[in-house]
Amino acid sequence: MCKVCDNEQQGNWFDIRLLWSLGVGRNVKFWEDRWVDCKVLKEYFPRLFTIAQSKDSEVFDVVDWGQSWSGRCTSWNLSRRRERFEREKQLEGQLLGLISSVQWNREGQNRLKWIGDDQQVYTMKSGYSILNTEDQMLSLECFQLLWSLKIFPSGVCLEDSMG
User: Fold this and answer.
1) How far apart are CA 8 and CA 25, in angstroms?
2) What whole-number distance in Å separates Cα of residue 3 and Cα of residue 131?
3) Cβ(22)–Cβ(110) under 8 Å?
4) Structural domain of residue 46, as residue ranges?
């Protein structure tokens, strides 16, 4: 996936504005992609990420549908490299509470959506439109700041130095 803006001050402009709406969870990284509550799980549960057996698992690999597909998963296969400590068990309970609330889309396909706009699926056109709008807002802020500065006109400075 293309990275639109990736510097340390602004972060990755593209990734922080998109959220995966899950179909079956293939090609969506469980720990690294934004698919639940606008969060990247490895950032919110770093301790659990460090003990995870497979750090590059897809959501599909971790979900356990059992016998039926109801649009809500309640069982997860979180494999670990070692047994959990008491604090990690508590964290895993929080993680399971968070991910169990995810609604899966019935179409069966993963879709990128803009965060804060459940209806707008990501398209190149929508991405360009948002990028263009934000770019205009940054330009406007820059010019507002520039015009609000209290600077003497160059002619006044020149008069004072000559006179």
Assistant:
1) 30
2) 12
3) yes
4) 7-121
Asked if residue 90 and residue 114 are part of one domain, the reply reads yes
Q: Give me the number of domains the chain comprises.
A: 2
Query: Distance between CA atoms of 79 and 71, rounded to whole angstroms?
Result: 23
Exposure string (b/e) for 67-94, b if CB count within 10 Å is 16 or more? eeeeeebeeeebeeeeeeeeebeebbee
**What's this model's pTM, rounded to 2 decimal places?**
0.68
| Residue 2 within any structural domain of the chain | no
Q: Rounded to the nearest 5 degrees, what angle is found at the Cα of 45, between the Cα atoms of 76 and 122?
A: 75
Rounded Cα–Cα distance for residues 20 and 61 (Å): 16
- How far apart CA 48 and CA 59 sit, in angstroms, is 15
Is residue 27 domain-resident? yes
Q: What is the mean pLDDT of each run of 10 residues along the chain (163 residues)?
A: 44 74 90 90 95 93 71 78 94 92 80 73 72 61 65 56 54
